[in-house]
Amino acid sequence: MKHKIWFGLLLFVAACNKQFVATQYRYEGEKILSDIRTDQRIDSIVQPYKTELNKEMKVVIGYADDALTKTQPESDLGNFMCDVLLRKSREYYKGQIDFTFLNHGGIRLPSLPKGEITIGRMIELMPFDNRILIMELDGITLDTLFNHMAAKGGWHVSGARYKIKSGMATDVTIQNSPLQSRGVYWVAVSDYLAQGGDNCTMLKGKPYIDTKKTLRDALIEGVKEMNERGERVKSVLDGRVQKAE
After folding, report:
1. Of 89, 156, 206, 243, which is least surrounded by CB within 10 A?
2. What is the pLDDT of residues 106-155, one digit of tens each?
3. Does residue 6 lie in a domain region?
4. Secondary structure string (H, E, C) spanning the chain
5. Cross-strand partners of 156
6. Do 89 and 132 contact (CB within 8 A), yes or no?
7. Would 219 be classed as within a structural domain?
């Protein structure tokens, strides 16, 4: 009798621990139409926040004399963003940062239009809450990183320069000096890339210092500071990333 009871308990436990795996999926689409009636009660709750948010998004923080465009291998938009991020990263870290970089896909607008620059526009440009991390990296790791950036068609940098030849990085310099395999460099990088995002596996698992600041906030602060100094947002192509002849 005892054996039957134990056998029954084992069957019960096995049934409770049974794992189910989906064998098929079904998708049903629901259209959101313009004639759907608004829930007035919910709308009255949301409206004050929506009004305040819209007002905040329209705040002008700077001006651009010309449109800045995202291109590869180098872009004036990418140069501008990286230059601001490098300057702000040094302020947050309160120490020397040798260079910074942005992946091409991380810039979410094709261009920053000429004229007024609003907070809303900066959020569109950099919508994610990616934080700025400071990493100490050796030259061998950076050589792999630059080759990766070159294979991707050219990523945006500040504090560094490189050429692309046959999908590989050549003539890499950091702070105007050739990249040294035994050298050690301080790099400002987004937490997304530091964790291996966009196939940056060479960075994953490396130690870092978290500035607790987002890339977006750094860019907004940078544009505001330029405006306070009476400066316009502008940038040029200076050959920091180029295809080798």
Report:
1. 243
2. 999 999 999 999 999 999 999 999 999 999 999 999 999 999 999 999 99
3. no
4. CHHHHHHHHHHHHHHHCCCCCCCCCCCCCCCCCCCCCCCHHHHHHHHHHHHHHHHHHCCEEEEECCCEECCCCCCHHHHHHHHHHHHHHHHHHCCCCCEEEECHHHCCCCEECCEEEEHHHHHHHCCCCCEEEEEEEEHHHHHHHHHHHHHCCCCEEECEEEEEECCEEEEEEECCEECCCCCEEEEEEEHHHHCCHHHCCCCCCCCCEEEEEEHHHHHHHHHHHHHHCCCCECCCCCCCEEECC
5. 102
6. yes
7. yes
Model pTM? 0.80
Half-sphere exposure of 217 (CA within 13 A, CB side): 11
- Give residue 35's pLDDT: 66
48 in any annotated domain: no
CATH number, position 148 = 3.90.780.10
| Total of domains in the chain | 1
Residue carrying structure tokens 């308990």: 9
Domain of residue 106 covers 53-235
φ/ψ (deg, to 5) at 161: -145, 150
Indicate whether 149 belongs to any domain: yes
Q: Greater confidence, 162 or 48? A: 162
pLDDT in tens, 43-59: 666 665 556 666 678 99
